[in-house]
Amino acid sequence: MKTISVTINGEAYVETVPVRMLLVDFIREKCGLTGTHVSCTYEGVCGACTVQLNGEAIKSCMMLAAQADGHRVTTVEGLANGEELTPLQKAFKAHHGLQCGFCTPGILMNMTEFLQKNPRPTDDEIRRGLVGNLCRCTGYVHIVDAVRAAANSAT
Amino acid sequence: MAAIPQDSKDWMGARLERKEDLRLITGHGKYVADIVLPGMLHAAFVRSDHAHAKIKRIDTTEAAALPGVVAVFTGDEFKDHCKSMRQPVLLPNLPAKYPLYYALAIDKVKFHGDPVAVIIARDKYVAEDAAELVVVDYAELPVVLDPEAALEPGAVRVHDDEADNEMFSMTFTGGATIEEQDKNAAEVEKIFQSADVVVKERFRVHRTGTTPMETRGVLAEWSPSDGLTVYNTTQRPHIDRLAFADILDIPAEKVRVIAPRDMGGGFGLKAPFYRESIVIAYAARKLKRPVRWIESRYEGLMNIGQERGQVNDLEVAATKDGKLLALRNRGVADCGTGQIGVYWGFVMPFLGAVEMPNAYTWNAGDVRLKVAFTNKACLTPSRAFGHFPTRFAIERAVDMVARKCSLEPADLRRKNLVPKLPYTSVTGEYYDSGDFLKVWDSLMVKADLPAFRREQATARAAGRYLGIGFGCGVELSGVASELMVPMENQPGYGAATVRLDPRGKAFIFGGDAPGGQGHETTISQIVAATFGISPEDTVITTGDTGTTPFGSGTIGARMGSYFASAVRKACDELKEKITHVLAHDLGVRATVEEFAFTNGEVIYARDPAKRKGFREIVERIIMFPVNLPEGEVGGLESTAFFEAAKPMICFNADCCVVEVDITNGNFKIQRWVTSEDVGNVINPMIVDGQMHGAIVQGLSNAIFEEFIYNEQGQQLTADFEHYKLATAADVPTIEITYASTPCPHTPLGTRGIGEGRPSAVSGALCNALCDALSLFNIEITELPIRPNVLWKKLQAAGAVTK
Amino acid sequence: MYPAPIEDYIRPRTLAEAVSALARYAPGEAVFLAGGQSLMQAMKSRMVRPRCIVDLQTLTELKGIRISDGLAIGAMTRYVEIAESQAIGPAYAALQDAAQHVGDRQVRNRGTLGGSVCWNYLASCMPAVTLGLGGTMQLLAANGKTRAVSADDFLIAPLETARAEDELLTSITFPAAPANTGSAYKKWGLVTDALPVVGVCMQVTLNAAGACSAARIALSGLSAGAQRAPAGEALLVGSKVDESAMKRALEAIVGSVDAQSDKWADTAYRHQLIRTLGLDVANSAFARARGV
Fold it and tell me: pTM score, two decimals?
C-alpha cells in the first residue's frame, strides 16, 4: 500500500492505495470521477481514459496511481468553469461531435491540449492528433468539425 | 451551427443540439461501470485456452481460499440450479439445430474463450488474481474451423448431441416446397444456359463485426421482496427480463432489467442475450449481494462482435447490353458454436441471404444458404446485420458484369434499379416505398462521373491510378412483426407511453434501449412539434422494464420507423382528449383537426381568439377534472403501439474515389459521396452522424478489422493492437446528399436509418480499387482488402516490377 | 487485465538511489519504470510481475537533449521532446522522424527513448533508429561502475538487451557527425502511426565529390528485431547516390534479411516495403545530407 496525494481538478486527494492500482481506477473509484472511461484492456490503444497530467494528455490506464503522487491531474469534470463550457465542449455540442459519448471525455482531454499547442490546425493535423482516441459511432467526421470549429472560435 | 426554430412546428427537421450532450461532455454520464451499489462484489471469468477440449477436472480450491474471494462457480452449479440457455423466449421460429448449453461450459469447451468458471470477489483485482489460480485439466480434441470442412461427412462435431455440423440450411427462392424450389432452380438454370453474359465467382468475407467503445457490463442485485434487478448493457431489456425469469426460474414480476440511459454503443452486439448475464444474476441471487462484471476488451474481442465470415459462390446472368437476368448463390456461413441467445449465430446469414438481391430487378433467383458449426466464438449481430458478405458479393458481381458488357458500372446499375415501388424481391423481401432512381441520380450529380473520368485520364497519363466505384443498399427501416416473429420470436411493433404533467411537461417512456443514437433529442423534437411546446419541456426514459412499455429493443433501425411512430401516435391520442375538453370549455363543436398546437398554445383555427395555453388546458384536465364533457375523465397519459401495414425500407447509394500507389498497393480514399433516402428527417445532424459512423464502420471492417484464428483455433486478435480499428487519420470525410421520399406508412413520413448502412461500403470501395487498376484487369473477390493483397494482385498482373 | 500484486513502489531522488533500490531485490523482481507505455502493457497482461517498481520520474539527470561533441539524449527523454526539439540536426533527424510517429499524442507525452530501447520490442522504432544512428548506451551499475555499449552490442534480440539486471540506462549518446551527414526513418503499418510492420532507418554521409562516404542502415519490424543491413550499407558506400545505387543497395538488403509472413504483410510484401520505404528514406537522408 502507498499513501499518495494527487490534485485532481484543483482538489487534493490523499489516499492509501495498493501499489498496483491503476491511475484510472484511482480517479474513477477512489475519487468518484467516473467521466474518465475504460474501453481497452491492457493495450492502451483506445484513449477513452485520457486525462491531463500536469497539463499534458496521457492515458490513465497506462500509469499506476502511485506515479501520479505529487502531480496535478485534470479530468473531463475539470474542463468547464462552473456552468461555462469550454469552446471545445461547446463545439462538440454544436457539431454533434459525439454519439454514445463513451470516447468523448478522452477526446476532449486530448484535443484541449492539442489546441493549446496548435491553435490553428489543418484537418489532417486534427485527424493525426486523434489517432490515440478510437471512436466507433461518429466516423470521426463531426469530431473533426468540432475541433476545427473550436479552433476557429478561439481566434 | 444549430439554429433554434422560431416556430414550434419547425422542431421537426431542426438541427437541434442534443439533450444528451451536456452530461456526456462534462463527465456526468452514467454508464453501467459508473453504477456502484453498497456491498457490491466483482466477477472475473476463467475462460478456455483451447478451442475444443474435454474438461477433465476443475480445481478451484486455491482460488476459493484467496482472501477476498467470496465464491467460485463452475458449470455444474448452473446445470444443477438453472435451466439451460435454450429457452423458448430466446429461440427463433426457424428450423435449425439449437445446441443445448448452459451459462458456463459443461463437460467440454467448444471455442477459445468459452467460460468455464467465475470468481466472485470483493475487489476486481483480487478476482483476477483468483481466476489465475483456477486449475482446469483439459484433454484436447481435434478442432473444426473451416465451415465447408465442417459440413463434410465425418467432420469433427462441435456439439456431441447434434448429428452433424449443419446448423441451418435454407432455400430462399421458388417457394416453400422442395418441388417448387427445384422447379425454380431449373428455370434459373435455363436462364444461365442462354444468357449472353455470366459472371461466376467465389466471394469471401472475413470474420469482422463491431466493437462498441463500451464493453458489456452486468450489475445484478437481489432483494428477497422485490426479486432481481439487473443493470445490463442491452439493446433489448424487455426480452432480457423474460429470459432471466425463465432461465433462473424467477416469477416474471420479480425481475426488472434496466439498460442504463448512457450506453457506450451497441451496433447489434448488445442485442443478444448472453450467458454471462445469467452467471452474474445467479451469483447475486445466491450470495444475496450485488455482483458486477465489466467485460474486458480482451474478453469482448475473444467472444463477441464477430460477424460476416462467409463464402458466397455467386453467379449472375445478364444480357450483353447489361440487363441483369438472374442470380444464383450458394452461401456457407461460419457460425462458430451457435451459442448465443436470440440469434444463435445463423439469423444474421439468414437475413443476409434474404437481402442478397439488393435494389436490382431480377427475373429469377436461386439463393441458398448453409450455416455450419465450427470451434469458434458464435457469430453475434453487427451493424449491417447479416448482409455485409452478400452485399459485397452482389455489388462486386454487378461491376464484373459491367466490365464484361463494356458498360459504365454506374449506368448498368441505374438500368437495373427497381424503377417503381412497392416491389417484392426474388427472395420475397418487400420494398414498400421510395424512389431508387431519384437517389441514384442525386448521387451522380454530386459525384460528377464525367468530370472524374477526365481527371482519371489525365492522372493515368501522369502515371497515377485513380478509380471510382459505386454501390447501393436497400436496408430495413425497422423490422416488421412478419419478419421479427419468425426470425427472433419477438414482435416488431413500436411502443411508447406519453404522460403529461400538470405543468405542461411531457414524459415519454419507451422500452427500447439506445446506445448513442440520440433518442432523447429526436423524440423530444417529435413531441415538441406535436404539442407545440419546447424540447426542453420533455423527458425521455428508455430501457427500464419497470417503467416502460414492452419494446423489442433498439435494433434494426427501429427509432425513426417504429418508436418515433408510436410516440407520435400516443401524442395524437392525447391531443384528441385535450381538444375534446377544450372544445367543450370553449363552447364550440370542433374536432382535433380544427385546433393548432403551437408555441405553447392550443388555438381554435376557426376563431383564433379562442385559445388556451397548453399548460393551462393540460393542468385543467389533470388537476381539475370537473365540468368535463360527458363520458370524459381526467388525466393525460397514453400508451400507443405502432405497426406499419407493411415492412419498410430505406435506401442509399455510395460513390468512392480512390488513388492507388501501384508500387506498394497503398491506397487512399480521396472522396466518399453518398445519397440517401431517409424519409422525412427529424434531426439532420443526427442523421448525418449515423451515416458517417456507419460508412466508417464499413470501411474499417473492409480494410482493417479481422478476427484471426490459428490452426488450433486460438484467437490471435483479442486486443486493439491486433484487431485494428480505423483511426481518424485512416478514413476520409464524407459528403452526404439527401434524396428522400417520405415514407407513406409512418405518421411522420420518417424512415428508420443507419443500421444496415455499412453494407454497401465494401462494394463501392473495391469497385473503385478495381476501376483504378482496370488496366491490369484486377478483380477483388475477397475481404479484407489491404495494400499487401492489392500489391500481390498487381504483381500477378505484371503491373509492377520490383 | 490488472497488474499482479506489487509490494513496493520507490521513487529514487538520485541515480545511486535508483540502482541500489533495484539491487535490493533478486534479479528480475524489481523493475525500472520509465514512461511505462510498454511496461504497463506487460504488467497488465501479467507477462511481467514485479515485486517492486522503481519509478525514475524524478531523476532530472536522465532527461533532456544535450549537444556537445555529438548528441546525448537522456534515457527518460520523452518522444514528444525529441519530436519537437530544435536542437537535433539533419544527421540525427531520423530520431525525430520516428518520435513524431510513435503511437499517438498520449503515448508520445509519456513514452521515453530509454524505455523503448531497453524494452526492445520487435515492432518498435526506437531500437532500430538508435542502431541505425550508431548510438551508444551509457549504463550505470549498482556498484557505481559505468560502461558504454554500442547499440549493435546492446540490442541482442526482441525483448533482450545487454543491460545487466542491476544496470540503469542513463543516456544514449551519438558521436559528432561528419559534415554532410543526414538521416531519415520511415515505417509502414496498417493503420496510421501503428507499430512498424517494417521500418527503415538510414544515416549517410557525403564526401566533397558528392559520393556516399559512410552509411548505416537499420530495419525495424522483422522477427529478428532491430537489425543492421550491412549488405545494403556496403553497396551504398562509394556509390554516386543515384536511384539505381539506392535500389541496388535495397535489393541487397531484401536478399539478406529474414522477413516473416503474417496477416499484415507476407514475406514478399515486407520485402517490397523495404524497397519502397527504403527509397523514400534514402532520398530523404541524402537530401538532408546535402542540406536541402
Answer: 0.98
